[in-house]
Amino acid sequence: MATPTPTPARQVHPVDEVPPVRHLAAFGLQHVLAMYAGAVAVPLIVGSAMKLSPADMAYLITADLLLCGIATLIQCVGFWRFGVRLPIMQGCTFAAVSPMVLIGTGGGGLPAIYGSVIVAGLAIILLAPVFGKLLRFFPPLVTGTVILIIGLSLLPVAGNWAAGGVGSPDFGEPKNLALAGFVLAVVLAVQRFAPVFLSRIAVLLGIAVGLAVAVPFGFTDFDGVGDADWLGISTPFHFGAPTFEASAIASMLVVALVTMTETTGDFIAVGEMTDRKIEPRSLADGLRADGLSTVLGGVFNTFPYTAYAQNVGLVGMTRVRSRWVVATAGGILVLLGLLPKLGAVVAAIPAPVLGGAGLVMFGTVAASGLRTLAQVDFKGNNNLTVVAVSVAVGMLPVGVPTVYAKFPDWFQTVMNSGISAGCLTAIVLNLLFNHLPAKGSSASADSSEAGGLASGGGEDTVEKPREEIV
Questions:
Q1: 237: which residues sit within 8 A by CB, 6+ positions away?
Q2: What's the pTM value of the predicted model, to 2 decimals?
Q3: I need a labelling partner for 364 at 20 to 30 A (CA). Which of 52, 204, 438, 465 fits?
Q4: 353 Cβ contact list (under 8 Å, min separation 6)
């Protein structure tokens, strides 16, 4: 009697693998440290502009950390049609800072901010399927450009950290840059010479060693840890019932469109890094999770949520693709939100330490964009022009932050984000050069001979699946 052939075990995709517990904890903590400074920056900026008391500021921060963790769990683990189920870290979007400050200081206060945030979250949930259908307009030419812009726009953040943090009295002191350089050297040394597991937590080890060096040299102290409470719970509508003002809602809806555009770029970047391509359905699911987290943010005294690009760079650098690692990071953030004393310990890490690690992570994002652009054919078409102009428009507000200061608020909300400005430019230029029909074959040929200004590929550039496009 013939022996039945055993059925081979179904191979688990790296995104769905569950590493050992000790690895989960180390990798997860590394993601938390990579995004912590950015996560607490939004409540700090908004609270300071509104001149909140220290107690209210502390409340905003703990509420933010709690919701960052919940939003990350929704995105990574997912339920029903919510969550992209990729290693995506969630945090408050900086695109909403200026509008929220204007709303809060213009008489509406925090209740008007939270009312507009709730409406924006509901709008994102409703618009998610529409954005999902737009995925065909993101060929490698567009996605590579957007990923490159994401990395480049984050580098000034790392530079400010390395110099001591914006507003610090010793900003730019050589000792700050020396500490950042030391952390960068540790990260590179661990990644190059350490065993595989240690190389994957190179950022965590660099931050730990940098902190150990920083304490005796007086870069930081832990006085705030003793003053922090052991337990803190965010209750719904702590600052009062939300109010719904038309002008506030309108500005926050613009923010919602910007964050959806940025999040789409981050999702595609992580999909490229993890070899799990983003499809229209998964994109809609991820954006829907963003919307739900934003609604929860408005209820639980915090702000709109989006994917954090700095953690995209960490995924690319460490090559750890498991979504359960980032889900563990979400669990750690929930603990930090419930236990303010733990959050105070993490907050004591000096900015130059984070800056040294950030240079590697954010540079990795930019390099990933270049890797994606390597798939694109730049011969005899306008693809180089698409990349050049998109990067230029995306980097303009990064290099000159006040360039749009004289424009209306809604325009500033869109264009002051280098990521959204560059992304929109790349989409429009790709449609202009590669989607619209050429004037004529003879004109195209003449243009090509005159210097490569012919239409770059026709509608195929948009209609074909991204993996088939060259």
A1: 114, 299, 301
A2: 0.71
A3: 465
A4: 179, 180, 183, 206, 207, 210, 211, 214, 219
